[in-house]
From TrEMBL:
Keywords: DNA-binding, Nucleus, Repeat, Transcription, Transcription regulation. This is Transcription factor MYB36-like. Residues 9-62, 63-113 form the Myb-like domain. SMART domains: SANT (SM00717). It comes from the Eukaryota. SUPFAM superfamilies: Homeodomain-like (SSF46689). GO terms for molecular function: DNA binding. Its main location: nucleus. Residues 128-148 are annotated as: Disordered. It is found in: Nucleus. Residues 131-148 have a biased composition (Low complexity).
DNA sequence: AACGGGTGCAACCGCTGGTAG
DNA sequence: GCTACCAGCGGTTGCACCCGT
């Protein structure tokens, strides 16, 4: 048996919202709030819309203090960093970017950031990347039988963050993101993450969404949290071998010196 | 001017997890 | 413990707009 639909599909309007509908929704929520029940809201507000549609419209467009327009370099950096850490958990990423919605960030990632990466790789001045074999040669984290893509990327990003300021910046970040993307493809993309393990690492296993030690939910979580020991281990291992793949990453990053990204 | 492909964004869909009864 | 309901989430789609030919 299937579940009952959330609304009468035949009697709800779909498609773009009109200014009148926007006004009705805004005024209703301003006067009465959502009442904790989005399903009942459209009827009360005199809207022929599905409750889910109202919720989405409010959260993504009508809600106060929303930012529209270009993402800043800093926002780019946060998105890349968090994507590297937690994957496509857009709501979690959005929580770190005040005024941005998960839908915004998802669209931005899918339409712009991802393409920036691809463009960089295709660009003539792109630097040689490690091969997939080199990914496989990455040492596994402590206690793991094999290195996961996430391990590889985490170590790469950590190397980047630990490197001198001259080698940081968008180009290097995006270069790493692309490597990450390639690793995902190599591993079949789908079941790369042990999500529960990720959550446990990311949130300290407490089940909450606030970073341990953080007094504010808007505080940016330290990237290395949860991976700290694994990453240190990886760095230690990589640094001990001059022919290790970590030096490939250093070469890539070093090659980005004085490269401006737009 | 007309057309077609590309792009960006708003909105929808289907699923999951939480929870009240 | 079970069921039904709801909010929230991520993936996907539809469409308006832009731009090159």
């Amino acid at each position: 048996m299937g579940r009952s639909p959330c609304c009468d599909k035949a009697n709800v309007k779909k498609g773009p919202w009109s200014p009148e509908e926007d006004t009705k929704l805004k005024e209703f929520i301003h006067n009465f709030g959502t009442g904790g029940n989005w399903i009942a809201l459209p009827h009360k507000a005199g809207l022929r819309r599905c409750g889910k549609s109202c919720r989405l419209r409010w959260l993504n467009y009508l809600r106060p203090n929303l930012k529209h327009g270009e993402f800043s370099d800093e926002e780019d950096r946060v998105i890349c960093t968090l994507f590297a850490s937690i994957g496509s958990r857009w709501s979690v990423i959005a929580a770190q970017l005040p005024g941005r919605t998960d839908n915004d960030i998802k669209n931005y990632w899918n339409t712009k950031l991802k393409k920036k990466l691809v463009g960089l790789v295709a660009a003539p001045h792109s630097h040689k990347k490690p091969t997939q074999l080199q990914y496989q040669q990455q040492p596994p984290p402590t206690g793991a039988a094999t290195a996961t893509p996430q391990d590889v990327f985490s170590s790469s990003l950590q190397l980047l963050q630990a490197s001198p300021a001259s080698v940081s910046g968008h180009y290097a970040q995006y270069q790493l993101m692309d490597e990450y993307h390639e690793v995902l493809q190599h591993y079949g993309a789908a079941d790369v993450f042990d999500q529960s393990n990720f959550d446990s690492n990311l949130y300290g296993g407490a089940g909450g969404q606030e970073w341990p030690g953080s007094s504010s939910s808007s505080e940016l979580a330290p990237l290395e949290y949860g991976y700290h020991e694994e990453i240190k281990q990886l760095i230690a291992t990589n640094n001990s071998s001059s022919s290790s793949s970590s030096s490939n990453y250093y070469n890539i990053i070093a090659g980005c010196n004085n490269t401006t990204f737009e």
